[in-house]
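Internal tracking record. Fields below are filled automatically when a chain is submitted to the structure queue. Please do not edit lines marked as system-generated. If the sequence contains nonstandard residues, flag them in the REMARKS field before resubmitting.
Queue: standard
Priority: normal
Entity type: single polypeptide chain
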Amino acid sequence: MWHRTQVSTNIADRPYLGRGQRRILAAAIVVAAVHGEAARHGAVAQADVAAFLAGETKNCPGCSLPGANLKRRDLTGANLAGANLRGASFHRAVLRGANLSGADLTEANLNKTDLIQANLSNAKLAKAMLFEADASRADFSRANLTEALMGSIRLLGGKLEQAILTEVDLEAALLNEASFANATLNGANLHQGRMLRVNLRGAAADSTEFTQANLRDANLSGAVLRESVFYLADLGGADLSGANLSHSVLRSANLGNTNQTGTILTGAMMPDNSIHP
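SYSTEM-GENERATED OUTPUT FOLLOWS
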């Protein structure tokens, strides 16, 4: 009679195997174990995604959710850290206090969302849409916002230190007391931005549009602002110490009570239309 016996994975139980055969068997056992663990994790991840999309949970860190439709969802305090949310739609969703650190939100729709105090540090937001979103006190530090569309966004007290905002659109944005320290803003549009006491210390903002922006009491110390346009901008009381404004346009701008210690203005068009030597 034939009997089914359990196959042992203990190599020591097989003394008849040669050294080479033992190594091959050991490798096979490891590969099988790894594949089994990967399959288990894959099943768990799919279950997490299904539960999240069904609204059974707000948390899905590291989940793959490209193109997900999350319009108007209440995701207050949700944990979506490291998730793949490329092209997802969060239109009018509530993400207040949510953790989206390291998430991929490339080309995502975040128009009119509530992102107050959300964590988007190190997130990928290139070409994302955040029109009229409220991201006050949100953390975008080190995030990539290249070419993001953020017109009329509220970013009061926002943290954007070391963020990449190349060619971002921040037209008419409310940015009072936000910090862009050491951020990259080359080619950005900040036309009519409200930027009272904003921190642009050490920022790289060549060829940036600040026409009619309100920058009263702003900190632009050490910022690189070559060829940027400040036509009709209000820079009253701003700190321009050590800033590079060479070949910038300051026509009709208010520079009253500014700190210009060490400011570079070579070739700049000054408020009276004269060209600085």
